[in-house]
Design goal:
Blueprint: E1 13-16, H1 18-21, H2 60-63, H3 67-80, E2 85-88, H4 92-95
Parallel strand pairs: 1-2
């Protein structure tokens, strides 16, 4: 059996998705997205989507890991792991809160 190696100059990296980590669900004018209406679940309770926000319900995306406020710490953790690249997504409802705007939401 031969030992496999990554090619010279190979770059390790990481990626994240806004709906899984962003948090700050109503910060800086962000509009509602479908993930903002997706309730949490567990092995006994399947996740479901609501048509409007239900008071006191658990919506995991609302807080997530709060990457919106902690991105510098999170990126430092990637660097600590030796990652050289980082690919991320931003919720479109942060940039165009209703989808009808003609100019992007700069704060988002």
């Amino acid at each position: 059996m031969t030992k496999q190696q990554f090619p010279e100059g190979f770059l390790w990296g990481g990626a994240t998705a806004a709906n899984q980590l962003e948090g700050a669900f109503q910060t800086d004018g962000k509009g509602l997205s479908t993930s903002d209406l997706l309730l949490g679940g567990n092995v006994n309770t399947p996740r479901k989507t609501t048509r409007e926000l239900v008071p006191d319900a658990f919506y995991p995306s609302h807080e997530a890991i709060d990457h919106f406020h902690r991105f510098k710490e999170d990126i430092a953790l990637f660097a600590e792991m030796g990652f050289k690249l980082y690919r991320f997504s931003i919720a479109w409802t942060r940039i165009f809160p209703t989808g009808l705007e003609t100019e992007p939401n700069e704060a988002g």
